Amino acid sequence: MTADHHDEPVNHRTRVGQQRRERTRQKIVAAALRVFARMGTDAPMIEDFIAEAGISRGTFYNHFSATSELLQATIEWLSADIIESIESELSAQPSPLLRLTVGLRFWLGKAEQDLAWAAFVARPEFIKELQFEPVRRDLLEGRQSGQFSFPSERVAFDMLAGTLILAMRSYVQGQVPAGYTTDIIRITLQGLGASPASIELALAQPMPVMRRPPMSLPPA
Length: 220
Prior knowledge:
Elements: H1 2-39, H2 46-53, H3 57-63, H4 67-87, H5 96-113, H6 115-121, H7 124-129, H8 133-145, H9 153-173, H10 180-191, H11 196-203
Helix pairs in contact: 1-2, 1-4, 5-6, 5-8, 5-10, 5-11, 6-9, 9-10, 10-11
């Protein structure tokens, strides 16, 4: 009992230190997100992140060794944020087609409303790194159930990712005609081999309310 008593303050200090370190890391990543959104991915220097986060150079290097490592952490953070927001609303959807339809409506709705976010995400290197496991799951389950028909997961995913990139760029450039979002989702589902009737039924379903809105980025 005496040993446990002496260990408790040490363990508490360790937990507090870990929590403080994690808060500092998140502060740096949040600052990096603003810097990347404002300057792009190639222009920023370490000094830009230090100034944005209000930290010392030593603190920066305690968490990241290079801007490329920070960029990767930023992508992972942004990915986890949007996927968590969308996934939390999809559990009630009874089929892969409905889950994918709702997910696309949430994703493109976010892009249309948050152009800084769309501009940041609409780069091939970001789309490639985003955590799309739930999408891959729905694609495979949809093909197994006969709701989708496509040659391979790679073909389906590349078509989907490419469409998202171009759609987000269209929002950013202001080149969006009336009904664009619904039409993009419709043509995407057609490309995945869903039947016209099932697509219209999925699009007609009421949208759930996103209870956990994803983070927004400041305008560039």
